[in-house]
Amino acid sequence: MEEALLEKRARQSSIKLESLLNEQTGLLREANERAAAMEMRAKESGCEARKAKRQAILANAIAIVALAFTAAQYFLGGQ
């Protein structure tokens, strides 16, 4: 009788363990999928950041040229 009870508990524990392992596997899979999605977003963000940096450099170059042109007009017009 005691052996049967122990065997029943062992089966229940085994079922619980299997259930926990399945749940853990599912959570791990979900975490990996989220990490991959975040990595993809980070790459996209990096591309967007590089594009924004290039545009900022171009805008600054245009501003410097415009400033130089305005300064040249000011100095040449003042003489």
What does this structure look like?
- There is one protein chain.
- With 79 residues, this protein is mainly alpha-helical.
- It has one helix at residues 2-78.
- The mean pLDDT is 92.
SSE blueprint and pairings:
Layout: H1 2-78
Task: Give me a quick take on this structure.
The protein has one helix spanning 2-78. By secondary structure, it is mostly helical.
Largest sheet: none
What best-fitting shape do the alpha-carbon axes yield?
A: rod-shaped
What ranges have pLDDT less than 50 throughout 5 or more consecutive residues? none
Count of separate DSSP helical elements: 1
Q: What is the chain-wise order of helices and strands?
A: H
The proportion of residues forming helix, as a percent range, comes to over 70%
Mean pLDDT across every amino acid position: 92
Report how far the terminal alpha carbons are from each other: 115 Å
Radius of gyration: 34 Å
Percentage of β-strand residues: under 5%
Throw out a few tags for this protein.
79 residues, 1 helix, 97% helix
